[in-house]
Design goal:
Number of domains: 2
Shape: globular
Distance between the termini: 50 Å
Structural class: alpha+beta
Largest sheet: 5 strands, mixed
Strand order of the largest sheet: 1-2-3-5-4
Order of helices and strands: HHHHEEEEHHE
Radius of gyration: 23 Å
Number of strands: 5
């Protein structure tokens, strides 16, 4: 299957062309039997207005198709409108905050280390810091002992499911872990504490309690 050619693009792959080709390849593998070619040619092989019944993504197919193929989403980076990743980020982030009706002013984070524990290969810090002038968030920071400093950092976010009793503890290994939390990790995280898996690879990990979960 050949993706449609765009002769206005440079021969050298760009971030957008990579995303477009990946999306097209993914759709082709999901559809199979030449269906993507028919879709791109405007020759739908399924009834108008109905999603294909043999797609692995089921009812999500129209949404994926609209972004990856039809370009119906004006702020999708794969639709070819944007030439600058920086400009796209600025516009897309602004639109997101507008829709969320959330645009807090910049503030001094005022970090405070409450506790520091040597965990062998890394150090675990319990901290507080401001995310807005009025909101102070609790977090764990895992800092690897080995490797270059400053280490590359990752913000690791726990799930947003209906299990609110714990937050950041869902992805960090702690001594004396409650059996209920251990069971939750086994079911939803493959029994792993993913923040610990990441710090072992040399990354500093910031693990924050989400709204209404854990200490918040």
């Amino acid at each position: 299957m050949k993706a449609p050619q765009n002769h206005s693009q440079s021969f050298h792959p760009t971030r957008r062309s990579f995303l477009q080709s990946t999306a097209l390849a993914g759709l082709a593998s999901l559809l199979g039997n030449g269906r993507l070619e028919a879709e791109l040619a405007g020759k739908s092989s399924h009834p108008e207005g109905l999603p294909p019944t043999d797609s692995d993504v089921g009812s999500l197919f129209p949404f994926i198709e609209s972004q990856a193929v039809k370009g119906e989403f004006p702020l999708s980076f794969v639709n070819g409108r944007f030439r600058s990743l920086r400009n796209w980020k600025k516009l897309a982030r602004g639109k997101l905050l507008e829709l969320l009706q959330y645009s807090p002013p910049k503030c001094d984070p005022k970090p405070e280390v409450l506790d520091r524990v040597d965990c062998g290969d890394y150090v675990r810090e319990s901290i507080l810091f401001n995310t807005t002038p009025d909101i102070r968030a609790p977090a764990f920071v895992l800092v690897p002992k080995r490797g270059p400093k400053p280490a590359p950092a990752i913000i690791a976010l726990h799930d947003h499911g209906g299990f609110y009793l714990w937050g950041k503890e869902k992805i960090v290994e702690l001594p004396g872990e409650h059996s209920v939390l251990t069971g939750f990790k086994r079911e939803y995280y493959g029994g792993r504490s993913i923040a610990n898996e990441v710090v072992k690879q040399g990354y500093t990990v910031v693990d924050i309690d989400m709204f209404y979960q854990g200490e918040r």
